Fold this protein.
Amino acid sequence: MTVIYIICKILTFPGAYLRGFLEHIVAKLSGCYIESDGYIRMDEVSGHTDHSFPLKKAGAVAVAFVPGIFHFAFGLFLSIAGLVPLAHLRVEPSHHILFPLYIVITYIGVSMLCNLCPLVDDALFCKERLYGKEGRANLFVRIIMFIPTVFCVAGAYIERYSLNILIIGALLVLMFIN
Amino acid sequence: MSDIPESSGIENETPETEIKDNSSKIKRKNAPSPVIEAPEDNICIVCGRNRKLKGEDYCSSCLNTMRHRRPPVFAFIAAFLVLVITFVSGVLLYLNYAPSKRIIEGRTAVREKRMQDAYDAYEDAFNLAEELNTELNMDAVAVGKTIRAEEAEPIAALYVPYYAYNFLSRYFSDEEIKADSRMLPYYEAYTNYKTAYDDFSQYTTALNQGEMKADEALKNIRELKKKYKDDKDKLFWVLYAESYVDVTFNQAGPEKQLEYLENMEKTCPGQDWYYLGVYRDLYFQLGRYKECVDVCNKELADNRNEIEAYLTKLKVAFINENKQASEDIANEYLQYNEKDDRYVVMQIMMNRRFGNIDTAESDCEQAMKYGSGLPELHRQKALNALYRNDYTTAYESAYNAYSMAYNLYNNGDAEALNSALLETVYVCASMYKEHGDGMSEFHSDLDDLLSSFKGYDAIATENSKAIISGEKTAEQVLSEGAGDLA
């Protein structure tokens, strides 16, 4: 499974690299220790930053969510900007500048969408910090964060088994078929 | 970077609680959790050489390195590049918005069988892209030529299927058209027409040039029917030519035309794009109004923008003295079309027909205030003036309508110079010559215009003849029956 995971990270390297970078920044701001260099690696941390768990709840939430939120916003925007002309206006390879540009934009956008979720460990840690028996968050935060946390944990598992690539690939195929 | 003290509060937390542990998740995951700490577990989990600091999983050297580990410069460059690409994408998305919106509207219109709207939307998309590129002086917006293949569907529905091939051939090679299942039917329609046309055109050309008599041409064309008896698509064009020659050169009446049409439909079914429009006109001419309305409804099911079908239904409602039905038809038009000049035309016709000439005039003036380029609106103004016996305004409005329609005709709109318009121009010019005050700004063109209608009195409608001869007033003609000259 790790091999498939690593292959997917290599295929989506712009998003994976940026995800690792954002995670590095957020983890550092959350007071974590950054254990190793490199964001694209040949292990199950590829596309992420190997860091210690944050001490505070806010840090755990930030590490789990902030890079994903950035990736979702930028990835969605870039994907729309690239896919509208390619799938909708049917820009063809004969447009020598625009066509490769839209391909690049789409690739970066899609690769960011393929790297939305944190590592399973980070997602579970965040869940534990919010809903765990010891030191859980207050009721308001637990209610507000319930659905995002479910998505975060589920997404982390989906990404671990590279199912997100299949889902996004199917969506892309549907867009071009229609 | 936030500085964390070396005794970073971990000691104060319960060390056996995993969630509050400050160690690496990956390292922790792989590491066993011994009950009794073995001596080697005091070794730093990162370097594996030095002893752990108290309350930490790392040695002081590793802890110091980890605390000061910065992201690589390349990551900042990459993030900056992504920001630049995002900015460029935003600009391109903004530029692509208008053409994309029109293409979505075009596809929706095709699904809803609003073929004129669909064609307009697709054309707009290309025009918008071209305008933007001209403004920016660079090729920043592109619409792929595959969209032209989509545009062929409304073109085939609005005109003749082989027109779609003529349109497509401007953008695609024959090989590309033949290879695409969406475009292939238009290519086949064209080759069928071309093959048949090559055979019968010699006779129609000779007829037009006066080198052959109609009966002789008909005899030759009927010979072609044997040649294509097994090929219905080509036979259709031969039958069309036969009907055209008989109707145009032998002045065959509507009954004979209907006979031809029924025979054509029986022999070569599936050419509704031709049959429905001709059936509609013939049934109307022959007073078979119920069948006429049925055909109009079939036409509207294929194309919700078919204005002629709405107008014919409206005229049938006028003939039946059914004001409610005419209002329903106008509302049906609004259901599938915008509240445009054509809708105003229907309102003007309704108001004039049912005696509200003041409302008809004010509606017309209101619509024309915004500079309408629709010849039909000017024709309606001419009819309103004719109703009021204001022959100067009637002539001027008819003249304007004729000029506009003539320009449209020269730009490829074959239906712009329709019989209703010609009838109106003929009547208005004739009435202005007889009863006008001679003060029209187009007075100097009157003789030229009327000379172009030389011999028209033979084919003019009974209503037109009655108005010109003075048997009936324009008011009488326009407020009874179909409420129009034609």
Chain A touches chain B through 56 residues (CB under 8 Å). The mean pLDDT of chain A is 92.
